[in-house]
Amino acid sequence: MASKYAFAKPLKELRFHLCQTSPSSTSLRSFLQRAYPVMKKHNPYIPILIREAQGVSPQVIARFEYGKEVKLPLDGVTDKELETTIEKLVMTPP
Length: 94
Known about the structure:
Blueprint lengths: L10 E8 L7 H17 L5 E5 L6 E6 L4 E5 L5 H13 L3
Parallel strand pairs: 1-2
Antiparallel strand pairs: 1-3, 3-4
């Protein structure tokens, strides 16, 4: 059975940018606390980077083969919407 956090083969790196204290990053922080261990377990060789900085807007950046990157802002996204957004991003190369 395929996991919803098993990434597509062309995905080379997944980066999350968020603020440690900002209310706009709350859903991303809770998502990462819940989903990061599962994502890393199913994708041990893909770097999953979490970058925290004061005042940064939450966003996710996926780097695919040949250096193609897709950046999605995550401001105002609920936890459930965040999960479906990340799932679509990692399974659909540009």
